[in-house]
Design goal:
This protein is of the alpha/beta class. It is 40% helix and 17% strand. The strands form 4 sheets. It has an 8-stranded parallel β-barrel, surrounded by 4 helices. It has a 3-stranded mixed beta sheet with strand order 7-9-10. The longest helix is centred in the middle third of the chain and has 25 residues. It binds beta-D-glucopyranose. The site of beta-D-glucopyranose has 11 residues, from loops.
Length: 448
């Protein structure tokens, strides 16, 4: 049997996000977020599901950390709900909200689990959306103020910070297509949001450096592997446009201090307004890059839509598709990391999300034998190990997700967890992949 041994200091963890697991949407002074508003709007979420209760993690947090410890996790990636800290987005601080994350970080510390906190996993305060949301430039300063409050309280114990999770989803799916909160469909607002997310990131990193806090700071980007559908010039240009739009719109300003010029030309009127000095603010040195990877797609030129391109998800021969149509193409994760390594100047990469949703049926004890997910995860870990041997500075892996949880506009039917959550009883039962992953956390070895 082939074995793949990871470096001794490699961190094995799991990820969640506040709105997807916490519940307690209006408790202890929490304000309304755009996701609360969106989920409470009829017709927005499949089956009318909401994150009101979710995994009830807000009330079950100590037991949940205990479960992480039993599984042998070395790191936990979670996000902080801005509306728990500042119910109106700005102004009055809600101590009870800060206390919750304070307790979480302490519990993690006691369990010897590294705390990896994301400041913005999509749940902007509704009060800020009512003042113009991310397209309003003031939001970048409000974000930096919020970040400072959180750094001041948790900065002595959180080891890894990310400013945003997948800014493209907020800008393009939330503001461009309107399929996610806040549900606006406006291309100009989308690209302006994108720029403001970059700017807010830069301002928060400046605040972090000025405060001299202990941990490391980075950003989490979703970067899929994209391949031109053919050798034709049109398809190749479409593929570059797709990469510029979904990846270099963030990578280039953050790591190189400029936007991809070809994309900006293409966008024309919908390109964002950028003020003097913005790029300097965005271009801050970072300590790590978080990489979310789910699939690989072929890109072809088409004749409609702003970007004139189409992406078709593909799988490797032994791959297969998951329930939501994402394919298993493990080599893609390594290809992206090799490409991106060239521009990030050698800083560490962490996989901050990777996983899949499959049809699953618990047995009479609630146990799920999720062999397809196991195949997906194992094949990706093997590729990551290969990448390390080829020189990728990969330092850790956070699986998506620790729990089955609220899968945004798709509600609760897709399950991504390595731990099953029975939403009626809130019972947590590790799946086959949970047990398998636990062995990897303990041994550092993946068997082929
Ligand atoms: C997000 C997660 C989400 C996962 C699966 C990522 O885009 O960061 O919140 O649940 O993908 O769709």
């Amino acid at each position: 049997m082939l074995t793949h041994e990871f470096p001794q200091d490699f961190v094995w963890g799991a990820s969640t996000a506040a709105y997807q697991v916490e519940g307690a949407w209006n408790e202890d002074g929490k304000g309304e977020s755009v996701w609360d508003r969106f989920a409470h709007t009829p017709g927005r979420i499949q089956n009318g599901d909401t994150g009101d209760v979710a995994c009830d993690h807000y009330h079950r947090m100590p037991q949940d950390v205990q479960l992480m410890k039993e599984l042998g996790l070395q790191g936990y990636r979670f996000s902080i709900a801005w509306t728990r800290i500042l119910p109106q987005g700005t102004g009055q601080v809600n101590q009870k909200g800060l206390d919750f994350y304070d307790r979480l970080v302490d519990e993690l510390g006691k369990a010897g689990i590294l705390a990896n906190a994301t400041l913005n996993h999509w749940d902007l305060p509704q009060a800020i959306e009512d003042r113009g949301g991310w397209p309003n430039r003031d939001t970048t300063d409000w974000f930096a103020d919020y970040a400072k409050i959180v750094f001041d309280r948790l900065g002595d114990r959180v080891q890894m910070w990310a400013t945003h999770n997948e800014p493209i989803v907020i800008s393009q799916i939330g503001y461009g297509l309107g399929q996610f909160a806040p549900g606006r469909a406006d291309a100009s607002a989308a690209y302006q949001t994108g720029h403001h997310l970059n700017l807010a990131h830069g301002k928060a990193v400046q605040v972090f450096r000025q405060g001299g806090y202990k941990g490391k700071i980075g950003i989490v980007l979703d970067m899929h592997h994209l391949i031109p559908a053919s050798d034709s010039e049109l398809d190749q240009a479409a593929c570059q446009r797709a990469l510029d739009n979904s990846q270099y719109y963030w990578l280039s300003p953050i790591f190189e201090g400029h936007y991809p010029q070809a994309l900006m030309n293409w966008l024309g009127k919908t390109a964002p307004k950028i003020e003097a000095g913005d790029l300097k603010t965005i271009h801050q040195p970072l300590d790590f890059l978080g990489h979310n990877y789910y699939y690989t797609a072929k890109v072809s030129h088409v004749y409609d839509g702003l970007l004139r391109l189409r992406q078709d998800i593909i799988t490797s021969p032994a791959g297969g598709f998951s329930l939501n149509g994402w394919g298993n193409y493990p080599e893609g994760i390594r290809m992206v990391q090799k490409r991106v390594s060239k521009i990030i100047g050698g800083i560490p990469i962490y996989v901050t999300e990777n996983g899949g949703t499959y049809y699953e049926e618990p047995d009479e004890n609630g146990y799920v034998r999720d062999r397809e997910r196991l195949h997906y995860l194992r094949s990706h870990l093997i590729e990551l190990h290969r990448g390390i041997q080829e020189g990728v500075n990969l330092k850790g892996y956070f699986i998506w997700s620790l729990f089955d949880n609220f899968e945004w506009a798709s509600g609760y039917s897709p399950r991504f967890g390595i731990v099953r959550v029975d939403y009626k009883t809130q019972k947590r039962i590790p799946k086959l992949t949970g047990r398998w992953y636990s062995q990897i956390c303990r041994t550092n070895i993946v068997h082929e």
